[in-house]
Hints:
By secondary structure, this protein is of the alpha/beta class. It has a single domain (about 5-225), classed as HUPs (Rossmann fold, 3-Layer(aba) Sandwich). The protein has helices spanning about 10-25, 40-55, 100-115, 140-150, 155, 175-180, 205-220; strands at about 5, 25-35, 55-60, 85, 90, 120-125, 165. Strands 3-2-1-6-7 form a five-stranded parallel β-sheet, sandwiched between helices. A two-stranded antiparallel sheet has the order 4-5.
Amino acid sequence: MPDAVVLLSGGLDSYTAAAIARADGYRLFALTIRYGQRHVREIDAARAVAAALGVERHVVFDADLSRFGGSSLTTDAPVPKDRPIDRAGIAADIPSTYVPARNTVFLALSLAWAETLGSQDIFIGVNALDYSGYPDCRSEFIEAFERMASLATSQGVGGARLHIHAPLQHLTKVEIIRKGMELGLDYGLTHSCYDPGPEGRPCGHCDSCTLRAAGFAQAGIADPLLLR
């Protein structure tokens, strides 16, 4: 059984991507980054998701990007609320919730662990709805990072090819949810909100809440997180 490092945020997308890796026969090593985000509730969700997936090991790694600022997720700047959804997802500007170079940092840390494990596979839950808003979710970025990984690692120099898997890359939120339901996932364990209340309840108005609600509505399924 091959090993894979899976980036696990505690959100719906990363949970589904990791479950796909498990279904494909990989033994999972889950990496969660505590990056100074205001919504630390997602760390608890990541632990719950890791347990549900039966991962071999779960590492919560501190890389405090809030020291740089630059995002409403790592500062006290207001999180955008009640933005309209177009056919591709949230409107095409890069929102203040973009964290500069976040996925570059996350994938670099995943690559370090993968090389230590002797693994050639990393899974990340980026998807089509993030394309317009987040430049580090685009397929061009994932492909470029994969090429870089072959140049920057001993495995790559030795001829091994490292793979950055983004199995949700071309799926919409409703398609992701349906895939997760096929895999028997409990989305009540997850957390998606960018700006939760003091008790961790989702705000229901940020981009992430809006997209999640639309996905469940289109799937004709009640969001189990809201039933708890």
